[in-house]
Amino acid sequence: MPKSPRPSFRCSECGWETGKWVGRCGECQAWGSVAEAASEPAGRTTASPVTRPAVPIGQVSVEDSTFRSSGVPELDRVLGGGLVPGAAILLAGEPGVGKSTLLLEVAAQTARHRHRTLYVTGEESASQVRLRADRTGGVHDELYLAAETDLGAVLTHIEQVRPTLLVVDSIQTIGASGIDGVPGGVTQVKEVAAALVRVAKTRNITTVIVGHVTKDGSIAGPRVLEHVVDVVLHFEGDRDSRFRMVRAMKNRFGPVDEVGCFDLGADGITAVTDPTGLFVENHHAMVPGTCVAVTMEGRRPMLAEVQALVTHSAAERPRRTTSGLDSSRVAMVMAVLQQHCQVRLHTLDVFASTVGGARVVEPASDLAVAIALTSASRGVPAPKGVVAMGEIGLSGELRRVRDLPLRLSEAARLGFQLAVVPTEAGRPPARSPESWTVDGMRVLDVPDVRSALRLLHLLQAEHERPHAVDAR
Fold first, then answer.
1. In 3-state terms, what secondary structure has residue 142?
2. What pLDDT digit, counting tens, does each position of 174-198 carry?
3. Between residues 357 and 116, which one has the greater pLDDT?
4. Where is this motif: RadA KNRFG motif (predicted)?
């Protein structure tokens, strides 16, 4: 006799399965969410009629899948050219970062180009969205607004409006009737996402779905949500700053190493095409403890100023405070300076930060951090108009950084006169202030951090007096 299948129990919140009933989920720790899962009878799938016959790939038309501008240049940059008809886009971000404001601007710009747009909100009422649209100038006759939390009602709105662009804010608030679980649960999110993607593909509607994130920054809900969509975007920014960035984590139509920069203000969100000036302070006088690093955000070079303050400590254990920098890398740079450059910081309070709320975690900023710390501890400012880039190893050597020509061109474009970079393979290290140039900017290549500090006149031995570098 064939054995009957054993019953299984599944959590409606996270999808965790177990062989027996329990009152509390062993994965998400939710109470009362575990119920017996309906067993599906084993069967054999038979052939069914096809919706469209298969054709050679060369005969497939691509005219219906060409890029269309979203009206926001920075978002087009991240998407690889714009919105693709039939594409499903997932935009995730922390609460209050500006996801709804950005998508309302995209919807308004699409409507201005005579493309009908449907904005479905499940978190706000229609009047609340209208107030924000009045403030940002997003009111247009081709922009339709609906406040719904039922999937069937959303599909009905799509049938009636027939939009070119659909915005759903957010998927965690939409529920499907007849499906177990509460809106935002694993089963509900799967069903809603599958229905929206199916409508997007069959009707050639560009669909943008807003997703929530967990407290660790990952997208809430099942992982299958990221697999079924075509593009996954992360919208991030500091609450204390107006600067926002959109990163592409998955993109079937373009690159995934691009970022878009935005400025979130009271009158809406605007694109920032040249964000470098937000993170570099213009000092009228030479100030100790500052240095400018060139980082890469995707394929975009951005300059960020690193500042350091070193003071005498009155506590038994000196303080180590960082803001906008990786604290572990700052600690490593301090250890290298003490071991290989005799810069004594173990009894001093050290504060290191970036300007404008920039987040600099790239190893290529190690040299700028080392210059800022040494300049602050010695009270000697670095030469004016200098930028530094290079990863520091534990033995004090400088390692190569990627996209060095692109970084140097951006620094030269912004008027910097001197750059300190690691020695490239096959090129002898700089022995004097004279070296090669890039667009009128002098470039010094050095093998290690000690040589870089000496060339900048921040580190001297008693028996040698190296020539001071003047960037002017």
1. coil
2. 999 888 778 888 888 889 999 999 9
3. 116
4. 250-254
Q: What is the total residue count of the chain?
A: 472
How many angstroms separate the CA atoms of 271 and 142, rounded? 23
The encoded tokens of residue 241 equal: 């700053």
Q: Where are the domains of the chain?
A: 7-38, 66-273, 278-455
The annotation status of 100 as a binding-site residue, yes or no, is yes
* 93 annotated to bind ligand: yes
**Sheet architecture: strand order including 34-36:** 17-18, 9-11, 34-36
Report the alpha-carbon angle 447-302-269, nearest 5.
Answer: 165
Is the confidence at residue 467, as pLDDT, over 50?
A: no
Count of other CB atoms within 10 angstroms of residue 424: 11
β-bridge pairing 206-211 and 165-169? parallel
pLDDT over threshold 60, residue 41: no
In this structure, what is the dihedral angle of CA atoms 276, 282, 286, 292, given to the nearest 10 degrees?
-10
pTM of the model: 0.76
Closest-CA residue to 116 (of 65, 72, 160)? 160
CATH number assigned to the domain covering 278-455:
3.30.230.10
155 three-class SS:
helix
Structure tokens that stand for 84 in this block? 């693709």
CA R_g for the chain:
28
Look at domain 66-273 and name its CATH class. alpha beta
Judge whether 94 is annotated as a binding position.
yes
Beta bridge partners of 144: 118
Are 407 and 292 in contact, with CB atoms under 8 Å apart?
no
Give the confidence band of 469 by pLDDT, cuts at 50, 70, 90: very low
43 is in an annotated binding site: no
Domains 66-273 and 278-455 share a fold: no
95 is in an annotated binding site: yes
Structure token pair of residue 366: 């190690």
DSSP-derived secondary structure for 378-424:
HT-PPPTTEEE--EEPTTSBEEP-TTHHHHHHHHHHTT--EEEEEPP
- Peptide bond before residue 170 is cis, with ω within 30 degrees of 0: yes
Is 254 annotated to bind a ligand? Reply is: no
Helix axes 366-378, 327-340, angle to 10 degrees: 60
